[in-house]
Specification:
This protein has about 290 residues and is of the alpha/beta class. It has two domains: about 15-155, 3-Layer(aba) Sandwich (Rossmann fold); about 170-290, 3-Layer(aba) Sandwich (Rossmann fold), CATH 3.40.50.1980. The protein has eleven helices and 13 strands. The strands form four sheets. A five-stranded parallel beta sheet has the order 5-4-3-6-7, with helices on both faces. A four-stranded parallel beta sheet has the order 11-8-12-13. The longest helix has 22 residues, at about 145-165. It holds the Pfam family Peripla_BP_2.
Length: about 290
């Protein structure tokens, strides 16, 4: 019996204790979990993408509409979107943590989660430098720190390479058109503004604090962009192509940009930023030929 008790005591002593985790979220709150999260609900596409990058993809049990990246995330059940969440389904998943988009998810909906006693973590990435930090913190939440650290460093290295490559390039004044009716662009709070800066572009509406402000056509003309960019098939840009007195139109720099991840503030944005830099460099060569 003494030998049995000694063996049991040794077994207990050798069994690693499950440590609690503590992470500060983007609302400045310290979120403490009794153990790494193994049941995670993500309420924004960029959050889901970041969780997968952090090595926590297998723990994501619910996500939001319009989640496209990475491809395997499309298999995760949808439990809400930016305006409405399925509280019953989320509660039924018994999540260890619900990660919400601080400025994107409806505050009233998030408050309901809090009142139900579910642990909530607020995430907000508005600059490229915020992304590796989010990857690392999600890694701590999920206990996947090694993978998260490796992916975060790889992202930082890729950004540094791009930044170095375009640091000495001629700066271009850029108008980025999000929508044509009403005419919408990106302000300083949108991560595309940061991507433009990295690629050697100056967002002509960087002085506006909103993420997606509405502007007037006259304001665009007054700021005389060297380049006008927009997504989609480019049809919404046709009016600008006929504005021959603008430098962008005169130099053939009214361009449709095929970079679907560029507005996604998460690791998958890297391919979009790479495309943006290449397109701006091509536009730069045309400006040089036709000053």
């Amino acid at each position: 019996m003494k030998r049995l008790l000694a063996c049991l005591a040794l077994l207990v002593a050798c069994t690693p204790a499950v440590a609690s985790v503590s992470v500060v979220d983007d609302a400045g709150r310290t979120v403490v979990l009794p153990a790494p999260a193994r049941r995670i609900v993500s309420l924004a596409p960029n959050i889901t993408d970041t969780l997968f990058a952090a090595g926590a993809g297998n723990y994501v049990l619910g996500t939001s509409r319009f989640t496209e990246y990475p491809a395997e995330a499309k298999k995760v059940p949808v439990v809400g979107d930016a305006t409405m969440i399925d509280l019953e389904r989320i509660v039924g998943l018994k999540p260890d943590i619900v990660i919400v988009w601080k400025s994107g998810n409806a505050a009233a909906q998030v408050d309901k989660l809090v009142r139900l006693g579910l642990p909530v973590f607020y995430a907000e990435t508005t600059r490229l430098a915020d992304i590796p930090s989010a990857v690392r913190r999600f890694g701590v939440l999920a206990g996947t720190e090694d993978t998260a650290e490796r992916r975060a460093r790889a992202f930082e290295s890729s950004l540094k390479t791009l930044r170095t490559a375009y640091a000495g390039k001629r700066r271009l004044r850029v108008f980025y058109q999000v929508w044509d009716r009403p005419l919408m662009t990106v302000g300083h709070a949108q991560i595309i503004d940061d991507a433009l800066d990295l690629c050697g572009g100056d967002n002509i509406f960087a002085d506006l604090t909103q993420a997606a402000p509405t502007v007037g056509r006259e304001a665009v003309i007054a700021r005389r962009p060297d380049v006008i960019l927009g997504g989609g098939d480019g049809g919404a840009l046709d009016d600008w192509k006929r504005t021959g007195f603008l430098p962008a139109a005169r130099n053939g720099n009214v361009l449709s940009l095929d970079a679907p991840t560029l507005a996604l503030p998460s690791p998958s944005i890297l391919s979009g930023v790479t495309t943006l830099c290449r397109v701006l460099d091509e536009a730069r060569s045309r400006v040089s030929k036709h000053p």
